[in-house]
Q: What sequence folds into this?
């Protein structure tokens, strides 16, 4: 089994061996990935045999985590896949009407509308999550850089991923999620909450990988991934900003978005999880910096260790100054016990 990784902004996939090598020796049996994103770190901790909770306040991240972390056994059979591909007379046309020509062609938008209607007809929640995770993955793979911050032909460089249909992407995504399903014989869980609403009870170790706050990037995940976030609920209860070129939704409020409030947000978070082992990923050009982060952790913990590795991010406008060619930054891992 292997994790269906993506180019998700800030994904730790490329430095997982570094992170896991420092987590593995620690003494813990339950772990929470409080900002799970792509889900790769929670999945790696599941592979260590731990009882894992994966949380993110975005629904698309929740469905990936429910499929790959919470789910120990359920896959999507060929029969269910055939049902997902059927024409559904109840299908609505919101995606076709709102987004045709922005991110995808009409036939791809129609495929998304119809597949969503079929997903709604599934009776098993895990089947629904697996199919939604695959549909979101298909949408991301068919976008230059996997994001929804621009429209038109920017970044369309003839790659296969951008050329093949949404349906083909979906057909390729389903087996990737199916083969990722395994049991570690633990009751794992996926949740979809603001981090401050999570209960720290029964959590031995919490892995904290929030958006990296920097004056050079807005680190707004909703702005980048609004299309797949909207799709997971078919925009129900979300406010679509119809006047915007990208037809994005309102970004979710988060304490981890603003460099002015950054230190206070970390301080409150460390206080919230003070009885857990705290493991924090952060970039060398983020705010707070290394010394300040150590100081904040020391408010609640006796011992703080800092490990460092270099990592090249694939995002040109993230974790470094816009316009700079050198996107080599250090990644810190703070472990406070
Ligand atoms: C750096 S990414 C995590 C990347 C992840 N570790 C991975 O390897 O893919 C930060 C995540 O925090 C989530 N997030 C931001 N603010 C949050 C909040 N207040 N509560 C819960 N999740 C939040 C974002 O949706 C985003 O997925």
A:
């Amino acid at each position: 089994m292997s994790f269906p990784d993506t180019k998700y902004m800030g994904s730790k996939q490329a430095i997982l061996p570094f992170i896991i090598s420092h987590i593995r020796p620690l003494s813990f049996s339950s772990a929470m990935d409080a900002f799970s994103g792509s889900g790769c770190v929670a999945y790696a901790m599941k592979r260590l045999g731990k009882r894992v909770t994966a949380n993110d306040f975005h629904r698309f991240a929740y469905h990936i985590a429910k499929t790959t972390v919470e789910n120990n056994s359920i896959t999507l059979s060929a029969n269910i896949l055939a049902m997902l591909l059927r024409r559904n007379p109840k299908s609505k046309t919101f995606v076709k009407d709102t987004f045709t020509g922005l991110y995808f062609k009409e036939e791809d938008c129609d495929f998304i509308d119809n597949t969503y209607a079929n997903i709604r007809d599934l009776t098993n929640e895990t089947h629904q999550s697996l199919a939604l995770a695959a549909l979101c993955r298909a949408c991301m793979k068919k976008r230059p850089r996997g994001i929804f911050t621009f429209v038109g032909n920017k970044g369309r460089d003839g790659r296969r991923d951008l050329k093949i249909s949404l349906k083909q992407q979906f057909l390729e995504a389903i087996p990737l999620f199916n083969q990722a399903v395994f049991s570690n014989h633990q009751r794992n869980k996926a949740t979809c909450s603001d981090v401050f609403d999570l209960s720290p009870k029964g959590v031995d170790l919490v892995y904290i990988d929030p958006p990296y706050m920097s004056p050079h990037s807005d680190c707004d995940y909703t702005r980048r991934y609004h299309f797949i976030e909207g799709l997971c609920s078919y925009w129900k209860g979300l406010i679509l900003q119809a006047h915007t070129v990208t037809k994005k939704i309102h970004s979710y409020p988060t304490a981890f978005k603003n460099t002015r409030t950054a230190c206070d947000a970390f301080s409150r978070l460390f206080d919230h999880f003070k009885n857990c082992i705290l493991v924090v990923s952060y970039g060398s050009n983020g705010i707070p910096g290394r010394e300040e982060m150590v100081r904040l952790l020391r408010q609640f913990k006796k011992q703080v260790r800092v490990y460092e590795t270099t990592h090249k991010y694939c995002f040109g406008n993230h974790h470094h100054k816009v316009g700079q060619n050198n996107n080599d930054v250090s990644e810190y891992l703070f472990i406070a016990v």
Observations:
- The chain has a mean pLDDT of 94.
- The chain is about 40% helix and 10% strand.
- Residues 8, 10-12, 35-38, 40-41, 56-58, 61, 194-195, 209-211, 221, 254, 256 surround S-adenosylmethionine (CB under 6 Å).
- The domain at 13-80+120-336 is CATH 3.40.50.150 (Rossmann fold).
